[in-house]
Amino acid sequence: RLPKSSPPVAALAMAICCKKTGNEEPEGLITNRRCTDVLFLLIFSAFMVGMVIVGYTAFTEGDPNLLAYGIDSSAYLCGTKASKTWTSDAAASAAPDFSTRKYLHWSRVQDYGPNMASAQSVCVESCPVATITTEGSTSLTQSSQTYTCQYYIKSSVAGTLSGVGDWDVNYYAKLASAQQTTSNNGEGPCYPNFFVYTPILNRCVPVPSDAMYTALETSSPSAFGGSSGLSVSILKALINALDTGSGGVSDYIEDVYKAWMAIVVCGFVCGLVCSCLWITFIRYFAGVMAWMTIFSINAILWLVTLFCAMRGGLIGSDSVGVESDVDDSAKDNQDVFVGLTYGLLVICAIVFVFTLLMIRRILIAVAVLKVAAQAMSEMPLILLTPIIPFFMNVVFMGFVVMTMAFLYASGEIKKDASTGQGSVEFNETLQYMMTYTLFGMLWGLQFIAGVGLMTTAGSIASYYWQRDDMPRSPIKTAIKRTWRYHVGSIALGSFIVAVVQFVRLILEYINRKTKNAQEGSAVLKYFMCCARYCMWYLERVLKYINRNAYILVAVKGYSFCFSAISAVKLLILNAMRVATVNVIGDFLTALGKLVVAGTCTFIGFLYLDQDQYTDPTSDSYISSPVLPLIFIALIAFFLADIFLGLYEMAIDTILLSFCEDCGTANGPNFAPPLLMSALGKSLPAKKGKKVKPAYDDDDD
Description:
- By secondary structure, the protein is mainly alpha-helical.
- Helix content is 60%, strand content 5%.
- It has 22 helices and eight strands.
- A hairpin with a 2-residue loop joins strand 5 and strand 6.
C-alpha cells in the first residue's frame, strides 16, 4: 500500500501501474481479482478505434484502380479515364480514356530486365497474342496486330498519319515503308510482338517457347538488325533477365495441386500427431534424454582430450594401444596439442564438477518438463487454444493489409519531370496514417500473442495450484479471467515490445538509406550494426520478461509492472534453476521440431513414391516431389512450433509457479509429487487444498 505521505502524482502513477491489486492475497492461485492496468486498456481501445477510423478513411477515399491497374510510361493509369493530360502531352485533343484498356503492356523488348519501372509501356485492351513469327513458318507476319506502337501523340510520326487517334497503339499498317523497317528492327515507333503475352494482375507477361525461338532463327534476317542490335541470343538473354522461371513454377504449382492429399495427410495430420507424440515422449523419457545428453557432453570432452593427449605425445601406444604417430615434421604441432590437452583437462574438470553440483537442479528441471507434460495431458483441449489467436491474427492482418493497400491507393499520381515516369505520391496526412497503421499492426500482433500466452499460463497454473480442486473447464476459466480482468496488462506489455519493434523498423529504414555512406565510413557502419543488434537483443529480453510477467498476472492477478518486477526477481533468485530448465527444455523442444518436420517429410516422401504420383500415365502424376515435400516440411514444422510453443509456455508456467511456491513459508506447499520427489520431500496433506477456489463469477 502507498504511504500516506506519498504525493498525489506519484500515488496516481503507482496506482495505475505498479501496485498489487486488492489486499494482501493468500498463497496459491488468486481468484478474487480486480481489473489491472485499466488506463492502458483505455489507451489501447482508443488506439484501435483510431485504426478503424483510418481504415474507414482509406476504404472511402482510396482508389481501387491504383491497386488493380498499372501506370504506363507516360504516367497514365490503365483501366481509367484520365482527368487531364500532362504538359508534355498538351498537343493531344483530349485526355486519354483508357476505361477499356485495362492491361499494361511493355512493348519494347530492349527494356526488359529485373527492373521494369523505366521500361516503355502502353495500355492495351487485350494482351497481344498475334506474333511476327508462326511455328513452322520462315516468313514474318507483319500487321497492326503483330506490332504494338507507342501512343500516336507521343511517337515520331505524330500528325503525319490520317485516321489515327492520339492514343492509338495499332497503326503499324499505316506507316511508311522506312518507318516499318525501323519498327521491324526494334527502333520504333512500333515494336514487334515476339511472343504471346498472357494477362497476370492486369499486366501482360511474355510466354516464351522454344518453338518461337526456332521460328525466329529461321525467319527472314530482317527480323533483327539496325541500331537495336537485336538477335535471337540477345532476345533470350533479355527474356531470361525478365523471366522468373514461370514455366517451372507453374509445373511446381501443379505438382502441389495434385499432391494436396499428401500435403494434408503428411503435413497437417502427421504434424499434429507427431507433435502430440513428442510431448508424450518427453513426459516419460525427458529424464533419459537429459541424462544421455549430459553424459554425451562429458564423454565427448574426455575423448577429445584423450585425442589431443595422443597427438601431443603425452599418451603413447603402451597406454591406449594406439600409435601417437608423431614424426619430425609434426614436432611443431606437438606443443599445440599439449597446450590443448591441459586446457581441455581444465574444461573437463570444470564441466564434471559442474555436473555433480547441478544434479539436484537437473532432477528438478526434468521434473518440471514432466509436470508440464502431465498438465497438458490433464487438459487435452489446450492443444486447440492456438486456434483463437490464429484466427484473430488472420482477421487483424487482413484488416491491416487492406488498410495499407487502400492508403496507398489514396495517393496521387505524379509525373517526374526528368524521367517522365509516373509514381504514386502521398501527402503528409497519408504518411502519418501509414505510420499509425504500421505501429498499430505491431501493437495488435503482440497483444494477440499476449492473450494466447496468458490463457495458456492461466490454464496450466490451475493444474499446479489447484490440482485437487481444478475447475471443470480450466481453459474456459482462464480465457474468461484473461479477458475480464487482464487485457489492460496485456495491452501494456505488448505496447512496450511494439515500441522497440517500431524503433527497429526505423533503424532498418535508416540502414537502407545510408548504405552508401556506411560503405565509406567504417565507424558509421559499426555504430549502425551496434544499434541494430542492441535493439534486437532488447526486444528478445523484453519478450522473455513479458512471458514471465503474464504468468504472474495469470497466477496472482498483479498489475503488469509489479508482475514484471516480481518475475525478474524470481528469475534472478533462481537463476541456476531457470537456466537448467531452459537449456534442457529448449534442447528437447528444438529437437522435437526437427524430429517432427523430418518424420513428416520422410512419410511424405514414401507417400509420394506411390504409383499414382510416379506413373506418367496417371492423372495425379507429379513432375517432382520437391515442392510438395517442402510444403509438408514447413507445415509440420509450423505445427510443431505451435504445439511445442504451448509446451514451452507450460514449462515456464510450472517453473515460475514452483519458484513462487518455494518462496512461501515452509515452501514449496503446492508442488506436484514429481517436483516434491525431485526435492526429496513429500507434500503435506493439509497444504494440498490450502486455497479453495472461488472462480470469480464462473460456475464452471
